[in-house]
Amino acid sequence: MSAPSIADYKRLNDTREVVVKRQDLPLSCPTDATALWCSHPRVSLAIEGSADKTARCPYCGTLYRLID
């Protein structure tokens, strides 16, 4: 296994709010744009069933906001 690169560290889930679209569903955190190996376990978020169309990751606290 090779050592992590600087590019991997830049993909950490350090954004606290993320806007997602229906085409991005189903939603999970960390997202595919985030380096999974240096983040937390992947968790599914049921944002489409939320009354205010938001979901917060229980691990990192990132708030996801669904827009149509």
Question: Can you describe this structure?
Answer:
- With 68 residues, this protein is mainly beta.
- The chain has one domain (14-66).
- It is built from 1 helix and 5 strands; from the N terminus they run H-E-E-E-E-E.
- It has one helix at 6-10; strands spanning 17-21, 27-29, 43-45, 54-56, 63-67.
- A 3-stranded mixed β-sheet has the order 1-5-4, with no helix packed on it. A two-stranded antiparallel ribbon has the order 2-3.
- Strand 4 (54-56) and strand 5 (63-67) form a beta hairpin.
- GO terms for molecular function: zinc ion binding.
- It comes from Thiothrix fructosivorans.
Q: Main beta sheet: strand number and arrangement?
A: 3 strands, mixed
Tally of DSSP helical segments: 1
Low-confidence stretches: none
How many angstroms does the end-to-end distance come to? 41 Å
Lateral arrangement of strands in the main beta sheet: 1-5-4
Helix content: under 10%
Compute the average pLDDT: 82
List descriptors.
single chain, 68 residues, mainly beta, two-stranded antiparallel sheet, 1 helix, globular, zinc, Znf_CHCC
List the topology elements.
Elements: H1 6-10, E1 17-21, E2 27-29, E3 43-45, E4 54-56, E5 63-67
Parallel strand pairs: 1-5
Antiparallel strand pairs: 2-3, 4-5
Describe, in short, the structure shown.
Helix content is 7%, strand content 28%.
